[in-house]
Write a structure and sequence with these properties.
This protein has 354 residues and is of the alpha/beta class. The chain is built from 5 helices and 17 strands. It has a 17-stranded mixed beta sheet that branches.
Length: 354
């Protein structure tokens, strides 16, 4: 560790469940080797970041240098010189970002701009150790579409992501994240639906064990009429670990005909584990349809008994029920190859946790 950072504390409501000591410890991890993650998509344009540095600039992708700023408590540490990707209108692009950290601090700012009716499929993977901290800004033009999947399988340390997304008229942004990692995590996002008929879908699964802590904090703001947003998050906590999900929807006064939905569910594999859920609605318009649900529970004892009565061993029965719980979130990934890779990561985690 080379310096002392100004980090948020649990006195800040937005960071009441955050594990900043784990972040500080991640910065002090000794240097190690971190192989570049294996790509999932064979036909994708690849961006490889080693310790936050773009290793090779890919051909066929318009990428330039830029400077990003952010007032977010963690995002501001990733701000500064970064890269900008601009996708032309009506283009169809598939990008896979592979991030490897070898210890210490690792910051990577990135901005992605989509022209009118452009389509982007984006897959991101995190591996290695240390503090991996990203700031990603998306700017979607009219009718643009983003389908994104974030895979955190880093062995140790801490991963924090800050996404700032602007969604224009008739554009859509869909993002699914999986935390099947030995690291602590903080997934943070602020989405603004600026255009009439904009659409946002955000969710994923956080899987924790031992003394690990993972959390997400998401805010979706409807600033224009006829928008839709859906948040579906699942958390599985084992041993003495903690998983925390905070999801907020804000509907501005002029955002009439908004349809907003939240579904937060937690599963405790042992009663020594903790799941925190915080759904939140702030509605200033009067013609909206918004709903949220939050539940925490254990595996269904009757379902376990039934499966064991049919000859399924107890450990296998628990794994099947837990996998079905997690699949509820991962099924949102449209690409079959990407979805299969994420399911395999979740299964590998389950083999160690159960």
């Amino acid at each position: 560790m080379t310096d002392v950072l100004d980090l948020p504390t649990t006195r800040d409501e937005a960071f009441r469940w955050a594990d900043m000591p784990a972040l500080e410890a991640a910065r002090a991890l000794p240097a190690t080797t971190a192989p570049i993650p294996e790509p999932i998509l064979a036909d994708a344009i690849r961006l490889v970041f080693a310790d936050g540095v773009l290793v090779d600039e890919p051909t066929g992708l318009p990428i330039a240098s830029t400077t990003l700023a952010s007032d977010h408590p963690l995002g501001r540490h990733a701000a500064g010189e970064g890269h900008a990707i601009t996708l032309a209108g009506r283009s169809i692009t598939t990008i896979e970002i592979l991030r490897a950290s070898t210890g210490g601090d690792c910051h990577a700012p990135l901005t992605i701009t989509l022209g009118e009716d452009a389509v982007l499929t984006l897959v991101e993977s995190f591996t290695g150790a240390g503090w991996s901290n990203t700031l990603t800004r998306f700017d979607l033009g009219r009718g643009a579409r983003v389908m994104r999947a974030v895979r955190i399988v880093q062995d140790a340390g801490f991963v924090s992501t800050r996404d700032e997304v602007a969604i224009a008229e008739a554009a859509s942004f869909v993002s699914v994240a999986l935390g099947a990692t030995g690291a602590g995590t903080r997934l943070d996002a602020a989405l603004t639906l600026n255009g009439d008929g904009a659409y946002a879908e955000l969710g994923g699964a956080l899987l924790t064990r031992d003394d690990q802590r993972q959390e997400c904090a998401v805010r979706v703001r409807h600033a224009a009429p006829n928008g839709q947003s859906h948040q579906l998050w699942r958390a599985v906590a084992a041993d003495r670990s903690t998983a925390s999900l905070a999801a907020a929807v804000e509907v501005a006064r002029d955002a009439q005909k908004t349809d907003g939905e939240q579904s937060l569910r937690g599963l405790l594999l042992q009663r020594t584990a903790t799941v925190n859920l915080k759904p939140e609605l702030e509605i200033f318009a009067d013609d909206v349809k918004c709903a949220h649900g939050a539940t925490i529970g254990e595996l269904d004892a009757r379902a376990l008994f039934y499966m064991q009565s049919r000859g399924i061993p107890a450990a296998r029965a628990k794994a099947l029920l837990t996998r079905a719980f997690v699949a509820d979130a991962l099924d949102r990934i449209a690409d079959e190859t990407v979805r299969a890779a994420f399911v395999a990561d979740a299964d590998a985690w389950l083999e160690q946790a159960l």
